[in-house]
Write a structure and sequence with these properties.
Number of strands: 0
Order of helices and strands: HHHH
Length: 87
């Protein structure tokens, strides 16, 4: 049986999958890709900080949700991600 994953591991996996989906999707405009890929990287960096700024993490996630809400697959991934983010 596999080890249960921590919340951090789950969030990082969802960030990775979101980034791949953004990069490979033909339905997402290039401008949106260029705006959201750095936000995913920023979220990853914020989560890696020892002294986490939970407000910034939540704000970055909310911005990603607003930018990508019209794309169902990404909306689902970001919705799942919300369950594992620090509060």
């Amino acid at each position: 049986m596999s080890e249960p994953r921590s919340d951090d591991e789950m969030v990082l996996k969802l960030i990775e999958r979101s980034g791949l989906l953004i990069a490979l999707s033909e339905e997402i405009p290039t401008e949106t890709k260029l705006q959201t890929q750095p936000l995913l990287k920023q979220l990853e960096q914020l989560l890696a900080d020892d002294d986490r700024d939970v407000d910034r993490i939540q704000a970055t996630h909310a911005l990603l949700q607003r930018e990508l809400a019209e794309f169902a697959d990404l909306d689902a991934l970001l919705g799942a991600m919300e369950n594992f983010l620090p509060r």
